[in-house]
Amino acid sequence: MLSQSNDNELLPSRQYQYDDLPELGEVELFRRREAVFLVLAGLFLGTLAVLNIIGITRFVDLSFDIPGTNREIPMVIAIGVLPYPITFLCTDFISELYGRSRANLLVWVGLIVNLWVALILWVGGILPGFPSPVFDGMRELAFAAMLASMVAYSVAQFVDVQLFHFWKRLTKGRHLWLRNNGSTLISQLVDTTFVILITHYWAGALMISPDKSVAGQLLIYVASGYGFKLVVGLLDTLPFYIGTHWLSRYLRLPPAVK
Fold it and tell me: Among 14, 235, 236, 249, which residue's beta carbon has the most beta carbons within 10 A?
């Protein structure tokens, strides 16, 4: 039996039958599919909450020398960038397994989570209490990056979902690696550029030296952040293949790896 409708939305009561796997009851099938979605959605939303809090509280220097030369490749990234690529992997899994509507819904819920974090930080700052330099500093930096994060997140995640399904339609469901990388790598370039430009020009929260070209320093920030995401994005291709193959069988969906 088919497991998905014509508009690529998963139908909970239908399953694809594998010769080496037993057919599942409707209750067990529903439980499995909702549990996997909950894990992916929880990882996605938890990562968003964490990166909004730690955001630009610290920058890490991952610069490295080019072997055999005296040249250095600068790579300075905000600590909040470290877990961010996992969000694109989660939306790719959900797009592949559950369809566009659920992926778009998750993006909207993620935006609500961003607003919820901002509300908690704001309320925590205006209520009477004892002085807390740690909270005040974190709150100031979080608000400085919050707008950049929400705008970049909203645009990039929707771009990721739309491009994923664009490549899937264009290739008629083949070339899983193309829709995984083709959506993630473009959307993360959009995300990185938006974050850096808004954080600097609206929030003024980046470490910018007045003695050097502002454009050059912003370019380094963009290139550093995107370079990190590019490497992680390419590395997640194998986990995405393995994950979709295993999850398709576990959830009784048609084989996704082509």
Answer: 236
Residue 252: which residues within 8 A CB-CB, separation 6 or more?
3, 15, 16, 17, 18, 21, 23, 24, 29
* pLDDT score at 2: 36
Side-chain-side CA neighbours of 30 within 13 Å: the count stands at: 5
Encoded tokens for 49 = 């909450």
The CA-based angle 128-199-131, given to 5 degrees, is 20
- Distance in angstroms (rounded) separating the CA atoms of residues 240 and 58: 30
CB distance 224 to 74 below 8 Å: yes
Burial of 149-184, coded b for 16+ CB within 10 Å and e otherwise, reads: bbbbbbebbbbbbbbbbebbeeeeeeebbebbbbbb
pLDDT, tens digit, 9 for 90 and up, residues 41-73: 999 999 888 887 777 778 787 777 777 777 777
Task: Find how far residue 214's CA is from the centre of its chain.
Answer: 28
The pLDDT of residue 207: 73
Cβ contact 111:151 at 8 Å:
no
Q: pTM, whole model, 2 decimals?
A: 0.74
**Alpha helix positions (H), 14-132:** 26-54, 85-98, 100-126
Helix (H/G/I), strand (E/B), else coil: 231: helix
Locate the domains of the chain by residue range: 39-250
DSSP class of 7: T
Can you name the CATH fold of 39-250? Arp2/3 complex 21 kDa subunit ARPC3 (1.10.1760)
